[in-house]
Design goal:
Layout: E1 4-8, H1 18-27, E2 31-33, H2 42-48, E3 52-56, H3 66-86, E4 90-93, E5 97-98, E6 104-105, H4 115-133, E7 137-140, H5 155-165, E8 170-175, H6 176-182, H7 186-193, E9 197-202, H8 218-227, E10 233-236, H9 244-254
Parallel strand pairs: 1-2, 1-10, 2-3, 3-4, 4-7, 7-8, 8-9, 9-10
Antiparallel strand pairs: 5-6
Helix pairs in contact: 1-2, 3-4, 4-5
């Protein structure tokens, strides 16, 4: 197997405690992805001994203005301490905070000149923090259908920012589900992002369920990732269309070469 496989615990077994989900994923041989930490019993998660591959690296803040950047840095400092307790490998960011149903806070209908430069400055501050603390942040691409008005949500925008900052403390969380909806051409986008990828996330489209439930040909995508030299983590950030165990085994099969 070429890839470290993980799954987002937030989206599976949603009637079970988070520590139970993490333990079950560990038992099945998967790493664990998480979203926002305040809802979890962190001590119970630590006791599971699971490998936590990624979690949100902030609770509030944004990249594009001074006030938002200060909020982001403050939130990231607090969150990375939780991440360090869990041994989280990557702390994930977006262009702005996401509220109910994934809607950005604030919603931006237009992007003013200079926003990209301010976002780069903010990400350099994040990298300075990451370098001091020995952690890695990722910036995730989103899609405009489900996250309208999110600044720097597209695959192209995330690649532009991360490649311009070009520091090892900042990588791309390349979510191919969002790329498929926003731009398509997922293999070429993966090739373009390859030097900066920290993690690849997957879900099939439409439906955001496990590989094999939609239109995307995941075995071809897995072979292409391997052929281009990617051997890092692949996380299933998806709901189970039916049984969670069956969904996870379908994911494993799609990414076993």
């Amino acid at each position: 197997m070429a890839f470290q496989l993980a799954a987002c615990a937030e989206m599976l077994w949603r009637d079970r405690p988070m520590s139970w989900r993490a333990s079950r994923l560990k038992e099945m041989g998967f790493g664990v992805g998480l979203w926002n930490w305040p809802a979890w019993d962190v001590a119970a998660l630590v006791k599971t001994g699971a490998t936590f591959t990624i979690m949100n690296g902030y609770l509030q803040g944004r990249l594009t203005d001074a006030e938002g950047a200060d909020l982001l840095l403050k939130s990231a400092r607090e969150t990375l301490q939780v991440g360090q307790r869990l041994g989280v490998q990557r702390l994930n960011l977006h262009g702005t905070g996401l509220g109910d149903f994934g809607l950005p806070i604030p919603h931006l209908a237009a992007f003013a000149p200079g926003m990209e430069l301010r976002a780069r400055d903010t990400l350099h501050r994040i990298c300075d923090l990451a370098e001091r603390e020995g952690v890695t942040f990722t910036l995730e691409n989103l899609n405009p259908r489900e996250h309208p008005g999110c600044p720097f949500g597209s695959t192209a925008a995330v690649l532009s920012l991360v490649s311009a900052v070009n520091r090892p403390q900042l990588r791309i969380n390349l979510d191919l589900y969002h790329t498929q909806i926003g731009e398509g051409d997922v293999i070429r986008w993966a090739e373009a992002c390859l030097p900066w990828i920290g993690e690849v996330q997957v879900a099939d489209n439409p439906g955001r369920c496990e590989p094999g439930t939609g239109e995307m040909h995941w075995p071809n995508i897995a072979r292409a990732l391997d052929a281009m030299g990617y051997s890092g983590p692949v996380g299933m950030e998806a709901f189970a269309k039916g049984d969670e165990t069956t969904a996870l085994e379908a994911f494993r099969a799609a990414f076993t070469l």
